[in-house]
């Protein structure tokens, strides 16, 4: 669900007051593209990622805040020409104006991010050359940005190396395959999670066939999309998750929805978290059995395993009286 609000805001550059739409919340389903562009619901809100002052033309994510040199940049010939460029979409121009503002402050990573956003707008408008140029400029900024490790360590170790994958994708889509392959080798040396290594393998294969098109993380991992619509595929585990989700730990919930992806060594779970891998030692069926034992031991007065009297498969809910696996029903005969 996407929610926005209308607010009166004061421009930090000129003091003008205007009504702006502000994004309150947005739901995200599915994984992003390999260059970081979010999935459908979030990407549809791109028009709300920036605000523009109708009085002076200042572009910002929030008009009430301004960088130190903002006033100087906003009144420059380069900025005004970009803002009013007649042959480009308005949102494309606004993202590039944001990039110019951050260029002036030496904030190269932010500038690269806004140029990447501009590339997404160009993609949607069919402006292939503009999109390629924006990606190439963003890649140059990242390649020269200190430090030379292009990702930050995250709390979630499964995404270690993600920023490096994004850089490789920017280079690939900009038609700079040889440089992209050098980055692939560098990232592998410096360290990345199993998932990110698989995405790097996918990127290398795309570069080898001359592919400069859009691809998603799901494609790179060979996963179904969107993952939220895929069944758990174990009746007991599905029953427990469906009826007693609130009693499961975060780790158990992640394990229950975990997928596998194919590697050169064979299929593996899509995680490097040792706690999740330990829960999945015996697969989803083993996880279901372990959760059943724990929940019955810890919540005996609340948890009921409603099994079919004939075949033993768990029903869909605790009150169901029809088996999902065989035609058997155990409803009381109506009077």
SS class: mainly alpha
Tell me the span between the first and last alpha carbons: 46 Å
Rg: 25 Å
Mean model confidence by pLDDT: 89
Largest sheet: 2 strands, antiparallel
Number of helices: 14
TL;DR?
This protein is mainly alpha-helical and 335 residues long. The protein has helices at 40-43, 70-74, 77-83, 90-104, 108-125, 128-143, 162-173, 177-190, 194-208, 217-221, 235-244, 250-256, 274-279, 283-298, and strands spanning 3-10, 17-25, 51-52, 59-60, 260-263, 266-269.
Overall description:
This protein has 335 residues and is mostly helical. It contains 14 helices and six strands. Helix 4 (90-104) runs antiparallel to helix 5, helix 7 (162-173) runs antiparallel to helix 8 (177-190) and helix 7 (162-173) runs parallel beside helix 9.
Primary descriptors:
two-stranded antiparallel sheet; single chain; 14 helices; mainly alpha; 9% strand
